[in-house]
Amino acid sequence: MGAMARMSPQERREAIVTAAMAVMERQGIAATTVRDVAAELGTSSGLIHHYVDSMDDLLAEAFARAAGDDLATTRAAVESGQDAVDRLALFFDSYARADDDFGMQRWLEAWAEAARRPALQRASRQLNEAWHSLLASIIRDGVEHGTMRSDDIEAAAWRVLSLLDGLMLQVVAHGALTRAQVDAWSRAGAERELGLRPGVLGAVSARSM
Amino acid sequence: MGAMARMSPQERREAIVTAAMAVMERQGIAATTVRDVAAELGTSSGLIHHYVDSMDDLLAEAFARAAGDDLATTRAAVESGQDAVDRLALFFDSYARADDDFGMQRWLEAWAEAARRPALQRASRQLNEAWHSLLASIIRDGVEHGTMRSDDIEAAAWRVLSLLDGLMLQVVAHGALTRAQVDAWSRAGAERELGLRPGVLGAVSARSM
DNA sequence: GGCCCTATTGGACAAGTGCGCAATAGGGGT
DNA sequence: ACCCCTATTGCGCACTTGTCCAATAGGGCC
């Protein structure tokens, strides 16, 4: 009954961040404590601070990893699209598929915690920017190929993203809307925003039938 | 130096909630403690629990009061409108005027805290519903008088509100957008949603010139 | 095989939390 | 003027938090 198996610094750091992600997923960002992460790892709490400067840093890194994974998933899904319209449809598909996911809840907690945790705020802002950037690149492609219309691509991307976020908020925070409504309405909003024919972005339910 | 001036239970309760609101405004919901509220009042911490069952209840009541005041302000502003379109424009005016306000930040914190505080969650859901209801009543009026078009008033209200929320999120949480952009884009979105002529909801900047 | 480096331990620490309770004091009703 | 009711006090309690540090132990290099 001695110490936990000795690991290389890289492995251990990795394990710590992974454990933090798991606890975050289960209990939320604000309720994730050093001791919880240590318990998840099966090690002592002192070990955490041997690899991490502060709890703020750890939470920021765990959030960045989790949210970054989500972004990477969507990015990968989008890449398989034939043209811009197809890629935009895949963007919504991928977003909607995070159905049983805590994606949006995570963002909510990050925004609120950001007031007290500078590192977490930096991570959140950077990832938000990356999502906008992904969406803008799809739209830019569509405009250049003449399949989408927009005289301000950046702005259009913000509007599409904001509608999606606002609708998701109602699902996660209030339970006032269903995922299906968010899915249909956000696609319809994007179609109008980008001068697409209504329905071309196809709701999941419609396309899977 | 004896006890604080004796007050009637009603006055004292009122004073406690008011003090809690002030602390909430200054430090945020999550960072509002019993001792902070007592210090704001200039009384002892024990007094708080003599009037309030739990911190959850107190925070919920303080949030409900603060957010309820915001809603009442907008409701009052809206009532002075001549017709539905005018009232909708006033709705956006009132929302935009809360410029130096902590309105949206308060909602953010409420959503995140709601996970741990049932009473706060109830208050937040109820007020959210009230905002939607106010917006829906304006739209219903417009549709009935033929100045607005919508085949699903409830849904339209959710979409207008969600776009506004999503855009505000970018201002408050990330600083990625400006209030002016939110104002212009949310009005334009509502005009499209309700079949209004572009510009009739008039941005604040345009109308004040 | 032994030694040293460092990963790992486990608890101390100070600061903070919500809540409860015995003691106090002040004002209104008689 | 007195007395009782209760608003108010001020501290204690049990618990949690992040952070730190001396002690320990295990594995790789000579």
Notable characteristics:
209 residues, mainly alpha, Arc Repressor Mutant, subunit A, Tetracycline Repressor, domain 2, 2 domains, elongated
Describe this entry's structure for a reader:
Two copies of one chain form a homodimer. The first copy, chain A, contains ten helices and no strands. Chain A has 209 residues and is mostly helical. In chain A, helix 2 packs across helix 3 and helix 8 packs antiparallel against helix 9. The C terminus of chain A is likely disordered. Chains A and B meet through helix 6, helix 7, helix 8 and helix 9 of A and helix 6, helix 7, helix 8 and helix 9 of B. The structure holds a DNA duplex (30 and 30 nucleotides).
What's the multimeric state?
Answer: homodimer
CATH superfamily of the largest domain in chain A: Tetracycline Repressor, domain 2
- Predict the CATH topology of the largest domain in chain A: Tetracycline Repressor, domain 2
The number of distinct β-strands of chain A equals 0
Helical content of chain A (DSSP H or I, runs of 4+): over 70%
Largest protein-protein interface: A-B, 38 and 39 residues
